[in-house]
TrEMBL record:
Species this chain originates from: Colwellia asteriadis
Matching InterPro entries: 2-thiour_desulf, DUF1722, UCP037004
Name of the molecule in the record: DUF523 and DUF1722 domain-containing protein
Superkingdom: Bacteria
Database matches in PANTHER family: INNER MEMBRANE PROTEIN (PTHR30087:SF0)
Length: 319
């Protein structure tokens, strides 16, 4: 059950070069097949190139992060043409006007847009530990800590790609809930749809979120704020095969009395084979969805875990 959003309902920030805009230093682009041909069929992009936005030409000399004591420059290798403050100011501006984004895809390793492991140099040109963050990207993420963010390089990893897309759809669902006006009932209903999703990422958070919603001493606004922080933090934790298999076993329990001994054995076998890394997640999930059609269950039918995003993305086929 993924909430049926239209393409224009889900707006994703993206580094302009990743969707084919010729804004890179060499006058070209860095098109991402996933961004353009896969994810792009289901979302609407709002593209940004901070380097062009602060006045740098295309093509242009390369720029890098240079650390001189406590001062961080983003300039040409010789230290001239520093645009660090301009990039920071532009990042703050975009962060403020982009509160309605449901996710962001940055260009990896960029001194302006890289999420992590950006190369940093000394004024003499010696490389420091590659632990920098793009100046523009840092402002976006700092101002929107719950916003699902990824960079193009990491999206080549199947589990990371699936996790990012699932977080985007979860966050957009939450934004729609906020837009409709949060009540305690709506919050409880939202959580009931994501119980197995949370379980597959972090069992501790699963229990903590349940206890949070059971409290009677919190105003609904405070409860909602604490809830979504806990949920998005949990979903950023990697869902391992072991965690997925545990979640699948819980779901299997709903069908036990309806299945024959042979069917139970088959489902158990698929879950165990998946746990061992011998088949993709889609195999036991397909069987569970088949049994759900044969033996309808309203509670399971609304679980985001079973259908978190459009099936056409095929993100659970590869791991």
């Amino acid at each position: 059950m993924h909430t049926a959003f239209e393409k224009e309902d889900i707006v994703i920030g993206v580094s302009a070069c990743l969707i084919g805009e010729n804004v890179r230093f060499d006058g070209g682009s860095k098109p991402s097949n996933f961004c353009i041909h896969e994810f792009g069929q289901h979302v609407t992009y709002k593209s940004y190139c901070p380097e062009v936005a602060v006045g740098l030409p295309t093509p242009r000399p390369t720029i890098r992060q240079i650390k001189d004591g406590d001062i961080l420059k983003v300039s040409r290798p010789d230290g001239t043409g520093d645009v660090a403050q301009a990039l920071q100011a532009y990042g703050k501006k975009v962060a403020e006007i982009s509160k309605n984004l449901s996710g962001y895809i940055f260009c990896a390793k960029s001194p302006s847009c890289g999420m992590e492991r950006v190369k940093v140099y000394t004024p003499e040109g010696n490389p420091l530990v590659a632990g920098g963050i793009g100046v523009f990207a840092n402002e976006i993420m700092k101002a929107n800590p719950l916003l699902p963010c990824e960079e193009n390089g990491r999206l080549n990893d199947a589990p990371l790609k699936e996790n990012f897309v699932a977080r985007v759809y979860t966050y957009r669902h939450w934004q729609a809930l906020v837009e409709s006006g949060i009540t305690k009932h709506k919050l409880m209903d939202f959580h009931s749809q994501y119980k197995y999703t949370v379980m597959s990422h972090d069992l501790v958070a699963y229990k903590e979120l349940g206890r949070l919603l059971a409290r009677a001493d919190l105003p609904v606004e405070e409860m909602a704020d604490t809830y979504i922080k806990g949920l998005m933090t949990a979903l950023a934790i990697k869902a391992t095969r072991k965690k997925h298999a545990n979640t699948l076993a819980h779901i299997q329990g709903y069908f036990s009395k309806y299945l024959s001994p042979m069917q139970r054995k088959e489902l158990c076998g698929h879950i165990d084979t998946y746990r061992k890394g011998l088949m993709p997640l889609m195999v036991p999930l397909t069987l569970i969805n088949h049994y759900l059609l044969e033996h309808p269950n309203d509670y399971l039918a609304k679980q985001a875990y079973l259908n978190p995003y459009p099936e056409q993305l095929k993100l659970r086929y590869g791991y």
